[in-house]
Amino acid sequence: MTTALRISTDPTELDVTLIHAFLSTQSSWARGIPLATLQRAIAHSLCFGAYRGRQQIGFARVVSDRATFAQLLDVFVLPEHRGQGCARALLQAVIDEPDLQGLRRFALNTSDAHALYAAFGFARVQRPETAMERFDPAVYTRRSGGGKPIPPPQRRRSGQ
């Protein structure tokens, strides 16, 4: 018998070791993320854990001002638990979260789960020509081995 799936936003329940192991070695988007960086990200995010009994099997993280904007990040279900509706239940909990209601924009990036997210109302960016980002895909690999991150270029102030 399979234990019922439970979703929780209690940060004390998160298995940070498991989350780090998955994100740093199995994800395509956070490979090599240092544990300290992940811990800081979790501390400043609204996190959702998916559990069967006491075992964590999935995770999602939202960064938000809880009034106008949110970004959904780091969504995963462990491979041995996929295909059982866990991702859908996790996303439903995110969508139903009271602190995330009435947002003007709820964003995410995905390379391969468009159909899953579309079922929850997500769509391609309406006006991609207005979107910009600062993207540094090598930031974690430069930090590995005790290296310091390369700082962003200094901006000149007007009049300098």
TrEMBL record:
The keyword Transferase applies. One of its GO terms (molecular function) is acyltransferase activity, transferring groups other than amino-acyl groups. Keywords: Transferase. It comes from the Bacteria. Gene3D superfamilies: 3.40.630.30. SUPFAM superfamilies: Acyl-CoA N-acyltransferases (Nat). InterPro entries: Acetyltransferase_Butenolide, Acyl_CoA_acyltransferase, GNAT_dom. CDD domains: NAT_SF. Pfam families: Acetyltransf_7. Residues 9-146 form the N-acetyltransferase domain. Residues 138-160 are annotated as: Disordered. The keyword Transferase applies. This is Acetyltransferase (GNAT) family protein.
